[in-house]
Design a protein that fits this description.
Blueprint lengths: L2 E6 L2 E5 L21 E9 L4 E8 L5 E9 L1 H15 L4 E5 L2 H8 L2 H7 L13 H12 L3 E5 L7 H16 L3 E3 L7
Parallel strand pairs: 3-6, 6-7
Antiparallel strand pairs: 1-2, 1-7, 3-4, 4-5, 5-8
């Protein structure tokens, strides 16, 4: 099952296709922007914590991967999305198998964190704040949709970015190219 979310600075994120909106007056639509770029993101970690890798890829287009010698899987998932949003201009559809990333925008965790001065609902400091803050700031200023996809499933582009992230975790190397598999 895939879940698609819409998020922009003027609206709360909401599932696309359901007609439900978290705030009145939402300008989000179920129709994709003609110039919207789809980007798949994934992170991997050998041990948790341990050596990690992250990757993003545009179906049929460019991809990038990177590594961190001592990290967690959640940090790598976040880093993949942050690096993709930084690198790709305009409207985006971010596809991730990380509920940690997707649910932050779907359920507006970020709003509560900001309201509580970066404390979570248990009044503890928000983990990975150093990655969340710049990502949330970038998302708030852009037309970005989030879609969850089942990890290790049948999606070939998700499998591709997973392989890139695992390779970076294993080799602790970064790389980039201009060609990735097309979306089926």
């Amino acid at each position: 099952m895939q879940q698609q979310l819409s998020f922009d600075a003027a609206t709360a994120p909401s599932p696309i296709g359901t007609g439900d909106r978290a705030e009145a007056g939402s300008t989000a639509t179920d129709e994709p922007a003609a110039d919207r770029i789809t980007v798949y993101c994934d992170g991997a970690c050998s041990g948790n914590p341990g050596p990690g890798g992250w990757a993003w890829a545009v179906p049929g287009g460019r991809w990038t991967r990177g590594a961190d010698p001592a990290t967690t899987n959640q940090r790598m998932e976040l880093t993949a999305v942050l690096e993709a949003v930084r690198a790709l201009p305009g409207a985006l559809e971010v596809v991730s198998d990380s509920t940690y990333v997707v649910n932050c925008f779907r359920d507006r965790w970020w709003a509560g964190w900001r309201k509580r001065n970066w404390r979570n609902s248990q009044n503890k400091p928000v983990a990975n704040r150093d990655l969340w803050e710049p990502l949330i700031d970038l998302v708030l200023g852009r037309d970005i949709r989030f879609r969850w996809v089942k990890g290790h499933g049948s999606d070939p582009v998700n499998a591709f970015v997973d392989g890139l992230a695992v390779e970076s975790a294993r080799t602790q190397t970064a790389a980039a190219d201009q060609s990735s598999p097309n979306n089926p």
